[in-house]
TrEMBL record:
Entry's Gene Ontology cellular component terms: endoplasmic reticulum
EC supergroup of this enzyme: transferase
Highest taxon of the lineage: Eukaryota
Name of the molecule in the record: choline-phosphate cytidylyltransferase
Family: Belongs to the cytidylyltransferase family.
Enzyme Commission code: 2.7.7.15
Signal peptide: none
């Protein structure tokens, strides 16, 4: 393959001058002062400037590449990785390309595109989506068709441009046509189409920018979950109005799912009755305990009142003592006797 047009041997004076300016800036450092710049940084601190990113995707879907007009009369020269890291002029963003199938678009896809968008301070992210024909030929059948996958990627906030019917292997002509500076993908060798790594030539050319895969989420994982719990989802969709024919469910399985649904409803009702019964018994126990406590309180109160009236120190005893008299009984020894005011025992 001829990579001459994609990787020029010499850089133009404009880029060389930008490199010199950036190097001077990085070498000149001063102590931070309060109230000057973010976090106290001064203008001469060796901190890359934050360049406003292209935010087209935040307002409307990202456009398709075949719908954009490109001025090919202007020469396009790649920037180096160091220049891209330092930051490029606003009118010259770093054009990063990321490709994939993006079937059942999920958070792992979005995070990979977010990493690609965040590689450099001023990044224009181009995302290639392979067609159904290529995907079914090299990888396998997809859940979503190509138009659905194009639309899903279009509405990702990090994407600036979408390439439909993207090639499986990137050629120098494709890279030059789309003026691509770097290709972003995870660093794991991707064996396909008779190659042990379809990105090998990109890595060797110094255009590869690695990203990290998101563990625990992938299209294959999602499909595995659905296949594992197939009966649950089949019953769920039958209940929601889908026909057995739409779900590719046989007549016997359809009846089995409906029977299982009825059995589950009965179980749920029994469970609800049990829970309500437990709640009723609990309320009765609470009421019983409350009644017993109140009875004990009333019993103590009654006994206390009785003792206050009839006990040895009670009110009735004190009243009798105040109205009677005392004498000595000669027959049975000295004893104070009291009997209704009389002096006899």
């Amino acid at each position: 393959m001829d990579w001459t047009g994609v990787f020029p041997a010499e850089l133009p004076d404009a880029i060389r001058g930008m490199e010199t300016q950036g190097s001077t800036r990085l070498n000149s450092r001063k102590r931070r002062k309060e109230g000057v710049g973010p976090n106290g940084a001064t203008e001469t601190d060796g901190i890359p400037l934050k360049v406003p990113r292209n935010c087209l995707g935040l307002r409307e879907p990202a456009p398709f590449s075949d719908e954009l007009e490109v001025d090919y009369s202007k020469p396009y020269i790649r920037v180096t990785y160091e220049e891209a890291l330092r930051g490029t002029p606003l009118d010259r963003p770093v054009r990063v390309y990321a490709d994939g199938i993006f079937d059942l678009f999920h958070s792992g896809h979005a995070r990979a595109l977010m990493q690609a968008k965040s590689l450099f301070p001023n990044t224009y992210l181009i995302v290639g989506v392979c067609s159904d024909e290529l995907t079914h030929n090299f990888k396998g059948f997809t859940v979503m068709n190509e138009n659905e996958r194009y639309d899903a990627v279009q509405h990702c906030r990090y994407v600036d441009e979408v390439v439909r019917n993207a090639p499986w292997t990137l050629s120098p002509e494709f890279l030059a046509e789309h003026r691509i500076d770097f290709v972003a993908h995870d660093d794991i060798p991707y064996s396909s189409a008779g190659s042990d790594d379809v990105y090998r030539h990109i890595k060797e050319a110094g255009m590869f920018a690695p990203t990290q895969r998101t563990e625990g989420i992938s299209t294959s994982d999602i499909i595995t979950r659905i296949v594992r719990d197939y009966d649950v989802y089949a019953r769920r969709n039958l209940q929601r109005g889908y026909t057995a024919k739409e779900l590719n469910v046989s007549f016997i399985n359809e009846k089995k799912y409906h029977l299982q649904e009825r059995v589950d409803k009965v179980k749920k009702r029994v469970k609800d009755v049990e829970e309500k019964s437990k709640e009723f018994v609990q309320k009765v126990e609470e009421k019983s305990i409350d009644l017993i406590q109140k009875w004990e309180e009333k019993s103590r109160e009654f006994i206390g009142n009785f003792l206050e009236m009839f006990g040895p120190e009670g009110a009735l005893t004190n009243t009798a003592n105040s109205s009677g008299s005392y004498t000595t009984c000669t027959r049975s020894g000295p004893r104070a006797c009291e009997f209704m005011g009389r002096n006899t025992c």
